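The step that takes the researchers longest sounds almost clerical: writing a folded protein down as plain text. Below is the pair of lines this work produces for a single protein:

——
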Amino acid sequence: MKKKQVILIMTDTTRKDMVGCYNPKMVTPNIDALAADGLKFENAYSCQPVCGPARSAIFTGQFPHSNGMVTNCLALGDNVKTVGQRLSDNGIHCGYVGKYHLDGGDYFGKGICPEGWDEKYWYDQKTYLEDLGSDAERVLSRQSETSYNDDLTEDFTYAHRTSNRALDFLKDNVDTDFFLTVSFDEPHGPSICPAPYNTMYADFKFDDYPNYEDDLEDKPLLQRLWAGDDLNKSAAELNHSSAGLALFLGCNTFVDHEIGRVMAAVNAKFPDALVIYTSDHGDMLGSHKLQMKNAAAYKEIANIPLIVRGGVSGQTTDAMATHIDLVPTIMDYMDLPLPKLLEGKSMLPEIYDPAVETNDTVYTEWTRYEVDHDGFGGLQMMRAATSKEFKLVINLMDKDEFYDLNNDPYEVTNLIDDPAYTAARNDLHDKLLEHMNQTRDAYRGYQWAVRSWRQDKTPNWENDGYTRQKENEEYEPRELDYDTGLPMEQAVRLKETNDVKN
């Protein structure tokens, strides 16, 4: 019987317009080659545009609000299973090489291989630091200036050593059903890369996107605070050539080179494998006068690259896609039943026929940036729904946003209070509220429904009046009904109790 193999390749902080097949100004020939042989998604979205929570959705098939990792440095719940655990429990060999960021440790991780993945190939960032040996080398690995050292070679970098470990896995598993994750930290800062990558974008700047001029006056207060001194800068000051940008983009091309090393082995040994490329999130890089990422759903951070090879070849789709669908897709490809608690759907039908659209709306969320930091805005409760035409962003404690993506693709004009968009806005709002209910969002409540622009919604102590219990049919006994003490018959039901009311 023909073996089934899946290779998931990830980079960190790669904007969609940092990939050549999306933006010809970028040099990423190996990712471009993957797109030429596969299906490229224009409207793929991260579930939460910050490292840990984004990855939690990718590897569990549950949104951060369900799996417990609503911020960096907060671990997955003990009873949450990754796709590696689910596959390995079904006899499929799983390897994870590279950045993990799901164990609740600091940025580098704990250096401990989690359940479900083969310890032989485990190589998180703490493992890399220990591999370097000396304290001096560790420090060098965290300084951007190291990229300009004359003696720096690619052998020193995390990306190269991650590729090496991935190549070992591929060499050892030719006749095996497997799932391999190759998770690069690059181009995330400090963006270490050797010559010629370190200077190849010395004179680069992005096109003059209209949102460099966004004054944020009709946007959430958070965004104006986040912008800081950049709020008063011109587009020319925000979008210009700089050493920092050049190194970041150079590292992006360097990690494409390392992806090419992995793909050469995949092409030689596993030409029929399902290959998925994506990134966890992007970076604002001055758009909307913002840097890095935070509680927003702007395309620069939330609309990520996604390419799948193994179905149709050389096609592009504008269908809505989401990281939450990756686990169901991988399990479906492996002919495994999909657990009820997965919150996405299999994309396989769409991968084989792009006329089939898996989603008409996708969802993005935010709780906070990192539990360890007081800064970055702290608690910021955000939920967003995006379709091809519109984007609704509910900022629970702040100004809400609504964008007409056809007429305003750079998301400059906030139409949340525009009566001409009432029907479209409310339709997306209703879908978002239903999504929060269906996924048992721990933070759901009447506050998300009762907004200043939604006069037909009234506060209700009972909210929608339902009990919504978890269904985890593989790893836990069925939860018990509060009223009977017996296994529940329906996970979702109108709430009724036998409590004595005084």
